Every structure is written in C-alpha cells, then in structure tokens.
C-alpha cells in the first residue's frame, strides 16, 4: 500500500470518528434544550404547614453551616432586617453570632431533614399562622433580600 493510500484511508477514519463525536454533541445539546425533568421541590412548598412550628414560631428560619463561607454574611444581613430570626445549624454553631438571634445547633438530622434543606444557606419564612410563606436557597445577601421583598409583596 502506498503512502498516499494510507494517508487517505487514515483521513477517512478520522472524519468518521469526528462525525460520530459531532453527532453525540448534537444529541446532548438537543437533550439540554428540551430541559431536564424538574427535581422535587426544594424545601417545604409555600402554604404548607411549617414543621416544628410549636418549637420555632413565626419568622425567618436560616439553615446554616459553620463551615459555609457565605452563611456568615447572610446571617449578618438577616440580623439587620428587624424580624424574628432563628439560625439553625446542622452541626455546632460558631461563636460571635449577632445578638437577638435564636440559635439551634446540631439539627442536621432533625430540622434539616424535616424542612428538606438541600444546601446552606437556605431560608424559610414562616407566618404567624404556622404556614410557609417562602423557602429557597439564598447564596448571597442580595438573594436573601430579594426573597424577603418578594415574600413581602405577596
């Protein structure tokens, strides 16, 4: 077999492999464009009864972790909002928390499970009647303010 024939054969094999790769990528893009099936709701749905309401009462529940970098910022911002605040930690609580914050520590298997918390920081707003007004992850202080403004507008 000559050099030109070998090169031509190798080129066709490379083109065929490239076509298969492109077809696979087109399939993946099409699947992404269709949208993945929605996962289960994060946290309790709005309007449902708040778990352990007799223990927690109404207000803002912040689910936090001591090792979470953003959690401290979100907790500081929430402390400035002037509403009842409960900081719920999956493990031990850090020191130096803002005054006026009710702290519950070691709730990784308790309240975190009952409220279906997928990640921290996670905020839940509970009204006076023991109903969930809003619940969602808050990855920044702006996200927390946005959640509370949206909840206040309802």
Task: Throw out a few tags for this protein.
single chain; 154 residues; alpha/beta; Glutaredoxin; 2 domains; five-stranded mixed β-sheet; 5 helices; elongated
Per-chain topology:
Elements: H1 3-34, H2 53-56, E1 59-64, H3 71-79, E2 85-89, E3 102-104, H4 111-114, E4 122-126, E5 132-137, H5 141-153
Parallel strand pairs: 1-2, 2-3
Antiparallel strand pairs: 1-4, 4-5
Walkthrough of the structure:
- It is a single chain.
- This protein has 154 residues and is of the alpha/beta class.
- It folds into two domains: 1-36; 48-153, 3-Layer(aba) Sandwich (Glutaredoxin), CATH 3.40.30.
- The protein has five helices and five strands.
- It has helices at 3-34, 53-56, 71-79, 111-114, 141-153; strands spanning 59-64, 85-89, 102-104, 122-126, 132-137.
- A five-stranded mixed β-sheet has the order 3-2-1-4-5, with helices on one face.
- The protein is elongated, with a radius of gyration of 25 Å.
- It starts with a helix and ends with a helix.
Task: Briefly say what this structure is.
This protein is of the alpha/beta class and 154 residues long. It has five helices and five strands; from the N terminus they run ααβαββαββα.
Tally of domains: 2
Helix proportion of residues, in percent?
Answer: 40-55%
Q: Which percent band covers the strand fraction?
A: 15-25%
CATH architecture classification name of the largest domain = 3-Layer(aba) Sandwich
Radius of gyration: 25 Å
Task: Look at the structure and give the CATH class of the largest domain.
Answer: Alpha Beta
| Distance linking N and C termini | 78 Å
What is the CATH topology descriptor of the largest domain?
Glutaredoxin
Mean pLDDT: 84
Strand order of the largest sheet: 3-2-1-4-5
């Amino acid at each position: 077999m000559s050099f030109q024939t070998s090169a031509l054969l190798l080129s066709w094999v490379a083109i065929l492999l490239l076509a298969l790769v492109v077809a696979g990528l087109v399939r993946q893009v099409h699947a992404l464009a269709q949208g993945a099936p929605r996962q289960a709701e994060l946290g309790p749905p709005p309007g449902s009864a708040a778990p352990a309401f007799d223990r927690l009462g109404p207000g803002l529940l912040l689910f936090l972790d001591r090792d979470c970098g953003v959690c401290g910022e979100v907790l500081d911002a929430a402390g400035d909002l002037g509403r009842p605040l409960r900081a719920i930690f999956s493990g031990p609580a850090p020191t130096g928390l803002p005054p006026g914050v009710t702290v519950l520590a070691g709730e990784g298997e308790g309240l975190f499970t009952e409220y279906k918390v997928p990640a921290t920081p996670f905020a839940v707003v509970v009204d006076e009647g023991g109903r969930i007004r809003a619940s969602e992850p808050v990855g920044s202080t702006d996200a927390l303010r946005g959640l509370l403004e949206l909840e206040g507008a309802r």
